């Protein structure tokens, strides 16, 4: 029995030695780490760029807390590959509409990435009642001249809602003093950001202790800006033809009621679904228009849906 025990102990020691030697051979040296990076799909740490900024205002990455939070958002948005590819595809379609409006109002181009994190560049509805690509609340929309009711909701009108977002952001910049704080206020409100700055006796977004959503807000914007600006760096591979393109349209103006948009659409060689795709602000299959207000309806040019 003792001989068997000694033999088992000896075999066990040999096995442990072999495992130890194997572990040393397979240790993550710089050399085999580099080899793994080129052998198919691997998950690896990202290098956080040291010159990240929003609207020309630098992200203070020397602060270890800021660095970790920035690293988190870069990782989350890089490795959420399906969502990332959709953002590239939609950006190609919608940025050409958003960019000139931002420029017209003197709002930095970086704010187009705010729309990306607000809605993913689709017309969504928040639990609080915000709607559209820019997630505008009813009161803000009406204060800035948008029509909001069951029949027509211009928060779904990309050009008009982008103009309202610009006005809101300019007001926030005047009140809060920086574009970074203005962007954060788009999420938490001017009063909310101003109150927290006073309570915590700081003047910068990155010095604030905030709740989860607003605390991640600017880091998410900067991460999406970095990734969408550098697809190759973050492993996104696509061709120009893989991206979505906007369908050219022309405008039909009307100042009367429309009893049936299905029939209206047929007059232009399209169906109701296509009419709604290009005019999502028309919320019902008819237009009441008792005031004889002028509306511009977008109609796709011929040949794109055939």
UniProtKB/TrEMBL annotation:
It comes from the Bacteria. It holds the Pfam family SLT. Residues 104-204 form the Transglycosylase SLT domain. Transmembrane segments: none annotated. Belongs to the transglycosylase Slt family. This is Lytic transglycosylase domain-containing protein.
